Amino acid sequence: MENRNNWKNQLRNRKVTPSDEAWLAIEAGLEKKNSNQLKKKFIITLIAASFIGFVVFLSIPTQTRTIEKSNTVKVKTPIQSDQSVFPEALFLEVNSALTSADSEPNSETQTNATLTQSKLNTKKEPNSSLISVAENKKSETLKIPAKEEKIKASKAAIELLAEVEAELAQTIEINSTYSPDEEAEILLAEAKLMIQEVDYDRLYEFAQASDLLAEAENNLSEERLQGKVWLFVQSNVKHLETAFASLK
Amino acid sequence: MKVIDLHHKHKSLIEACLKNNRNAQFQLYKQFSAEMLSVCRMYTKDLHYAEDVMSKGFLKAFTQLHRFQFQGSFEGWLRKIMTRESIDFLRRQKKVEFPIDDFRIHEKEDETEEVLDSVRIEEAQYLIDQLPEGYKMVFVMYEIEGYRHKEIAELLSIKESTSKSQLFKARKYIAEAINSKKTANGKSK
């Protein structure tokens, strides 16, 4: 029996020494697998991170319309790339002091601020109708007392945003239908309206008559006048000389 | 009395391999590579191909090491991997054929065993190499690796009867080869 299974046992227990290349091949294979695993892990984490980022991005616009109340009431909405034409209208910052003072500027700095703000609006968005809507709504929001519930303010802000967006969409549609000449005419008309709406009385406050007179008098002082006349005569004489020279 | 846990003999080494310790992997490879190459060599004629098969087998073993549950011998587990890898290699070579016969097998095991007992290990390997791939696989799996016909049928996706017939024909083939060699030697003397 032992003899019978001899060849089987011999074959089973046989040892054939492999070459060194065999281990090198195994090592290379293991390295490759490790790098593949790392790549897989990286891809998985990348996908997970992008998914989380996407979820966060989706959740932000609905949640973070922040309304801060202290001395100021801020209504912030995220700036979307499609609607970036009108960013100033979407961002309102209202001083609590203004609510009592009916938008009449108390100092020069405040008036300058409002003027620059209006300049920015006219530069970036020539549609004055939109600005007027925004300003109307601004006055509405001013009526909301600062200590009232935040929800009201946020609702008002959202409604305002919706209206502005709707009007913006309408104007975009209208603009797309007009030719460039017609559009220019419309813009011109709007600009004229804006000029008419400007409160000139306010401007007169800054340009005082006494100052203007003083400036004019300074320019018309004797020395200056004499100098100017002398320069004028000199230049004319030179012209005449050259004219005579050419005739000769 | 000292109890030696044979199944868990390589436990620490295997655990280190699971942590992707290259040195431990090399130690494990060094311990079993010669035996595993012998297994692969039985199925594959060319030693170079056998080495390739063994390398792939070890690679598979290292990546699937977490599946080894320490319930049997590690060598046995490794041998199974090598056998399967060899079968896959032969299948990829498309050399495996199992001709279907309906004739009933009247095995006379003792006769073939007697013939085979007289050969040396090198001769036995040579005779196995001469076998067609289908015969060879069944013969090695049954006679040397100790698989049963049912297991062979499952592994090779064939019928149990086919496995039996392949074994019968393999034995017959080897017996004939030995006998013819003997007669040739007798005539030359």
What does this structure look like?
Chain A has 248 residues and is mainly alpha-helical. Chain A has eleven helices and three strands. In chain A, a hairpin with a 2-residue loop joins strand 1 and strand 2. Chain A is elongated. About 24% of the residues of chain A have low confidence. Chain B is mostly helical. Chain B folds into two domains: 82 residues, Rna Polymerase Sigma Factor, Chain: A; 80 residues, Winged helix-like DNA-binding domain superfamily/Winged helix DNA-binding domain (Arc Repressor Mutant, subunit A, Orthogonal Bundle). Chain B contains nine helices and no strands.
List the helices and strands and how they pair.
The complex is a heterodimer of chains A (248) and B (189).
Chain A (H helix, E strand, L loop, with lengths): L5 H7 L7 H44 L3 E3 L2 E4 L11 H4 L1 E4 H6 L6 H17 L3 H16 L6 H28 L2 H18 L2 H7 L2 H11 L2 H26 L1
Antiparallel strand pairs in A: 1-2, 2-3
Helix pairs in contact in A: 6-7
Chain B lengths: L10 H8 L3 H22 L3 H17 L10 H19 L16 H9 L3 H10 L2 H12 L4 H8 L3 H29 L1
Helix pairs in contact in B: 1-2, 2-3, 2-4, 3-4, 5-9, 7-9, 8-9
Tally of individual helices of chain A: 11
SS-based class of chain B: mainly alpha
State the helix count of chain B: 9
Q: How many beta-strand elements of chain B? A: 0
Q: Low-confidence segments of chain A, ≥5 residues, pLDDT <50?
A: 72-131
Q: Which stretches of chain B of 5+ consecutive residues score pLDDT under 50?
A: none
Task: Find the biggest chain interface.
Answer: A-B, 25 and 35 residues
Instruction: Supply the helix-strand structural class of chain A.
Output: mainly alpha
CA-based gyration radius of chain B: 19 Å
Overall pLDDT of chain A, averaged?
70
Sheet with the most strands: spatial strand order of chain A: 1-2-3
Q: How far do the termini of chain B sit from each other?
A: 58 Å
